[in-house]
Amino acid sequence: MKNLLALAALVLIAHASAATVITVNFSAAFDNGFALQNGTALPVGNEVRLGSFDITDAQVTSLMNAGQLQSLATHFTLFSNAFIGTDAFAANLGQLPLNQRSGLFEKSVQSTLSAASANKNIYMWVFKTTADNGVAADFSNVLQAGIFGNVASSWVFPADSGDPDTRTLDITNLTDASGNNLTGNQNILFGAFGTGTTPATGKPAFNLLQVVPEPTSAFMLLSGVTLVCFRRRR
Prior knowledge:
4 helices, six-stranded antiparallel sheet, 31% strand, alpha+beta
């Protein structure tokens, strides 16, 4: 009996300490895609990041409005990333030419859930860069961006229980069955909806917004030197 109790305790301990392996299928693939602020479909090659924030929605929006992307990134736990038009399931978008996949992507990732993400809302952080490629480490190549989520429980990372879990997320989850209207469940922290359409589907797009560049330290130093020189000249 004691041996059975000890074995049960070991099983419980192992289960409690095991990390949750989660599969996330995330996409903009079935109705609505991503577009620039002017409605033009987001070009192939731009990056989409999936993850969670450790600050409030209001704080996320405030940092985005201030162009403080580097600061915001320190509060973002990345689960995975994808690239517009180049990540696709073979049975769906993989059959379409790349030039028809602007604004669209889909990717499936299996990974260990970070403790920092457990029970946190899931967001897609979407970017338009100068060369339509990945985001630079200092975010200096970012021209526009958007942060899109949903209040539904499916858009929340699970608790770190040790049990396998799955999330299937598409940006169209933020719209009704027609794909033409927001449901009211959307949680758009930075971005808009309805300007322009997605070429491959004809449905309204989710729009990125222009990012106001955060002043760099070099620029601030140059401005300070200029001001000192101006005062000395006066």
